[in-house]
Amino acid sequence: MGDPRVGGVRAEETGMLTIGELARRTGLSVKLIRHWSDLGVVPPAARTAAGYRLYDDEAVARLELARTLRELGLGMAAIRDVVTRERGLPEVAAVHADALEALIRTLRLRQAVLRSAHARRSTTEELTQMTRLARLSAAERNTIVEEFLAEAMGDLEPSAYREGILAVMPDMPDEPTAEQVDAWIQLAGLVRDPALRAAMRRMAAYAAEHAAGGPGDAEANARGEAEARRVAELWVRLAGEAMAAGVPADSPAADPVVAEIVAAWLPGQAAGGFAPGGDGAEARLRLLEQLEMAADAAAERYWRLMCVINGSPEPPSIAAEGRWLTTALRANPEPRARAASIEATLAQDAAIDPSLMPEVCARVLAEVDVLVAAVSPGRFGDLTPCDGWDVRKLLDHIVYENLMWASLAVGTPRADHDADHLGDDHVEAFRAAARESLAAFRRPGMTERMYGPAPGWRLIEQLVIEMLVHGWDLAVATGRSADLAPDVAEAILPSVRAIYGDLPRTPGGSFAPERPVPPGASPADRLAAYLGRDAWNLRRLE
Length: 542
Prior knowledge:
Elements: E1 5-6, E2 9-10, H1 11-14, E3 17-18, H2 19-26, H3 30-38, E4 46-47, E5 53-55, H4 57-71, H5 76-83, H6 89-120, H7 124-134, H8 138-153, H9 160-167, H10 178-190, H11 194-209, H12 218-244, H13 255-265, H14 281-294, H15 297-310, H16 319-331, H17 337-346, H18 357-373, H19 391-409, H20 426-441, E6 450-451, E7 454-455, H21 456-478, H22 486-500, H23 523-530
């Protein structure tokens, strides 16, 4: 071991510590202390005659401080400066805190990119591109958007709308959230979409053509913007109220709502040179054109992503109200158009002997009863062909349709479409509602009685159509035979085509576009396919 003496005196007599003793005092390894000693963090106070290092009590304090600073991530050069008092601890701590902040920002950025890549199931090439986009400076981000906007509308006439678009740039903070980083990655990809470029160009061109004033007419433009906001708030409210009340957009009941919106919208159009002389086909077509121009999904996504990036509140989505109103305008292209179409259809001869309609309805309800009774509560959450409806919602609607048509037949229309009509026993709820509808339909003279422009048998016909179609939905959802009442479905299909043939098959409407059917399809399948159900791909819902 050599001579543990300093100047002929033993180390323990001097009060100094050997490196082994220092290791035991601090809990650090001899190897680490030796390394730090070589770096000047804790130089030996003396050496033995044999050259072994000896340390004083100050070395213990230095090592404790060095360990703490190392755990905080400081480099050894900075630690040496602190423990040797060449630099003050506050100064070093501040510098290191700044460095940690930069590191944290980098790590958060990487985390956001990786989460975004996971959500998109990105390829390695896409991950590389996403990382590059996330690291861009503010000026580089603006350049991407500015180049997109220049290509989209650079050669258009100046307008307040165009200038407003150009004024909004992605202003991501120095420490963006993961959501903001992801929104920027999405936006950078979106602006490469030719469809968005075309949509933004159409909107800017339309705004320039129909503007109340030129880009320099601030007062006229301000009035136009205020008027547009007023009308937008009105139609969103009215369409929302109609939706909440269960008013189908493609029904005559939507016509008064459309009329009120058109009346509020027309005065503001005069400033742009449009004066059709009141509500009519020309005015409704112009309003529909404007709504469709502004309702582009890619453009809406562009603005929503920009709000997220800039930390601005996202405006509430009005897509559902917009779909309702555009569908209502298509179904009611001029005042009373839909009502007149239905009245003409109602005047046509019956496909089934009107006197037999109550019993035809009873037959169909009996077949639907079998389907309803076979559903266990465990199936309530299963998907159905009705978009957005599970089995329980479908059952509730089937019950409500019976109650609603029965109430119309006795002259006391119901308005509780959004209530729970199933209760705890869906089978008994259906049977009670079916009994109520059949009792109303079997009253003497009901089939001949006029309900507005419709004879009573037409009300029964509507419930038969509802039960055939929604019974088909229930059968498909629960894996049972969907071939309901073939002779009734065959006989009633011409009436369905006459009643619903001119309806707009749009997202806001009652029915999806007609689906093709192969030769030999059953009458119920053909009926369901005509009303937008995919009679084969929906046989196995997952």
